[in-house]
Amino acid sequence: MTTATLHMPMPAAPDVPVRHMDFSEDRVNLPRYFYDNDPFASSYFLAFSAVIPHGERFFMESVRNYRDQVRDPGLQERVGGFIGQEAMHGKEHDAVNDAYDAMGFPLRKLDRVSRGGLKLLTRVTPHRFQLAFTVAMEHFTAIVSEYTFRHPTIQAKFTPEARRFMLWHMLEETEHKSVAFDVYQSTGGSYFTRVLAMIVSTGFLIGTLLLFQLWILAVDGSFGTVLRHPRGIAGIYGPRGLWASVFRPYLDFFRPSFHPSHHDTEALLIEIQDRLFSSQHGELKNQLKKTIMPRTRTMAAA
Ligand SMILES: [Fe+2]
Ligand SMILES: [Fe+2]
Known about the structure:
Layout: E1 18-21, H1 39-67, H2 73-102, H3 107-124, H4 127-149, H5 152-155, H6 160-175, H7 179-186, H8 191-220, H9 223-228, H10 231-237, H11 242-245, H12 247-252, H13 266-277, E2 288-292
One fe (ii) ion binds at residues 56, 86, 89, 169, 173.
């Protein structure tokens, strides 16, 4: 992604459909290392997966706390879609995490640590900060998704099952990337709290992923392999790796006038929606069980 993708005016917000998926057949015979047959990169994505179920519940709750203050019917509908999509992500990642736990990875232990950390965050911070934290984390998922969509060589390194699962989640992250931000802005969220939350969430995310990844590698006994074949380390942390590649779009968040739709992903969404869900050639047409379009809730009295 380049700054060429950062422009005005904003495109209309996309629909946020709730897709009910069934990935159970894709979870049969999961490979131990599903990215480039590489323990380091695979453990990194597993660490991501470990934080997702409770992370998604935290995000849903933080938006729900403000739902009744949202006056715009269009945004109300997108909030319904956001909650539905994140609920499905949590459920499906729970199932994947269980499958990897059964293979000897410490996913259930990591799940408990993640739940404890987010419970503490809920207890010690006000609702406004929790929503800002969600806004910040949604920025991470949006920029990593866009980067992955624009780099087919990265997609090709996943096994087919892992790739379509990841693309489904990333597609929906892109569809709803503005929802928490719009709720935050429309209910009076400040720039200061948004930036503070981004600084805290950056430390939280980097620290948690690193801890979880080291834990997974230690239990897996694969430190030796990682050190002998460091390509996975370069792919995540190297100067041309994942985090270096999304650093500029990450910084855009700190502009006072920033809005997620300034990173224009309209054409990408159409392309990935067709690739995954076309009734003729969709890679996920068999996993899609039904799609629900959320309706506007009864508005709270003004
Ligand atoms: Fe999600
Ligand atoms: Fe999300």
